[in-house]
TrEMBL record:
This is one of the proteins that bind and probably mediate the attachment of the 5S RNA into the large ribosomal subunit, where it forms part of the central protuberance. The keyword Nucleus does not apply. Belongs to the universal ribosomal protein uL18 family. GO terms for biological process: translation. This is Large ribosomal subunit protein uL18. SUPFAM superfamilies: Translational machinery components (SSF53137). Part of the 50S ribosomal subunit; part of the 5S rRNA/L5/L18/L25 subcomplex. Contacts the 5S and 23S rRNAs. GO terms for molecular function: 5S rRNA binding; structural constituent of ribosome. It comes from Candidatus Sherwoodlollariibacterium unditelluris. Keywords: Ribonucleoprotein, Ribosomal protein, RNA-binding, rRNA-binding. The gene is rplR.
Length: 119
């Protein structure tokens, strides 16, 4: 693990001390890699994953070929918010997992808001 990843994990641990998802307002965790994004909705009270999606998903891959860019993050945000509404989730706590709020993370968050998610 390199220095940059260790710094991100330290930031994430600091953030997690103050952030807890509940059944009515679960925590949405975003994981970023070079080629993909994944998002997981977690209920921290019961320690359960409510649901999870990634840009590797077959339905999403039909819409977008390259999933490691800002345009794909925007489409993934709309896709994720649509699926979350089907599960009955509209209010969340956005956990950026220590990543800086710019680029794909910022675009994903803004498209979630456009899709009707509240945070």
């Amino acid at each position: 693990m390199n220095k940059k990843e260790l710094s991100r994990l330290k930031r994430h641990n600091r953030i997690r001390l103050r952030m807890h998802g509940t059944k009515t307002k679960p925590r949405l965790v975003v994981k970023r890699s070079l080629n993909n994004l994944s998002a997981t909705v977690v209920n921290d009270v019961e320690n359960k994953v409510i649901f999870s999606l990634s840009t590797v998903n077959k339905e999403f891959k039909q819409e977008v070929k390259n999933s490691g860019n800002v345009k794909a993050a925007e489409i993934f945000g709309q896709f994720f918010s649509r699926k979350a509404k089907e599960k009955g989730i509209t209010k969340i706590i956005f956990d950026r997992a220590g990543y800086l709020y710019h680029g794909r993370i910022k675009t994903f968050a803004e498209s979630l808001r456009k899709g009707g998610m509240e945070f």
